[in-house]
Specification:
about 200 residues, Spore Coat Polysaccharide Biosynthesis Protein SpsA, Chain A, 7 helices, 7 strands
Length: about 200
């Protein structure tokens, strides 16, 4: 066991806003989750995990790898609750990743942890608002917990800047896209490795 963990966050409702016509939303959400689970399972030096709401138990079981930590949260699932649950399991650093980034490069998972070498919190912004990943030293600092920020908060970055006591407490890593509308599917790069489950599902349309 490492003292650092990266978790796919599966909350309710599932990430189906980007589902294109002709595909079942539940199948789309599971394909996205499978690709992100594969991503977090393969980053050296980080323990992989899935944090999920009770409604997503079947998805978590279906996409998890044998060595993955599975953490169910019953009283509200979100990035901050997920980080708190990971801190309770003894981790010193943790990150949660959005479930709708199937083509996210593995390097983008590692970068927030590099940021935690000097900062208390590191985030990867999402194009158009919100976050792709939120990483923090654990337990989370009071100012982060008090910010109420979640991965889907459109103003997450300015709120975190306002909450951080010092500018060096927060670091931003490069941004990436999330699949939040059917039009976003066009931005998936066939040349990038990974996202096999999403790729296979889209090819059957």
């Amino acid at each position: 066991m490492s003292d650092r963990v990266v978790a796919l966050l599966l909350d309710w409702p599932p990430a189906t806003a980007g589902c294109p016509p002709g595909i079942a939303p539940a199948a789309f959400a599971r394909a996205l989750a499978e690709d992100v689970a594969d991503l977090v399972s393969d980053v050296p030096g980080l323990d992989p995990a899935i944090v999920y709401s009770p409604d997503r138990r079947a998805d978590a079981d279906a996409v998890s790898w044998p060595a993955m930590l599975l953490v169910e949260i019953r009283n509200g699932v979100g990035a901050l609750a997920a980080l708190a649950a990971l801190a309770e399991r003894g981790y010193r650093q943790g990150a949660v990743v959005a479930p709708d980034v199937p083509d996210l490069p593995a390097l983008m998972i590692a970068k927030p942890f590099s940021g935690l070498a000097t900062a208390v919190v590191a985030v990867s912004p999402a194009d158009g608002g919100g976050l792709v990943a939120l990483a923090s030293r654990l337990p989370v600092p009071d100012w982060l917990a008090g910010s109420g920020v979640d991965l889907d908060s459109p103003d997450a970055v300015p709120r975190l800047h306002a909450a951080a006591p010092r500018s060096r407490d927060l670091v931003l890593t490069p941004s990436w896209r999330r699949l939040r509308s059917p039009a976003d599917i066009a931005h998936l790069d066939p040349g990038l490795e990974g996202w096999e489950a999403t790729r296979a599902l889209l090819s059957r349309r």
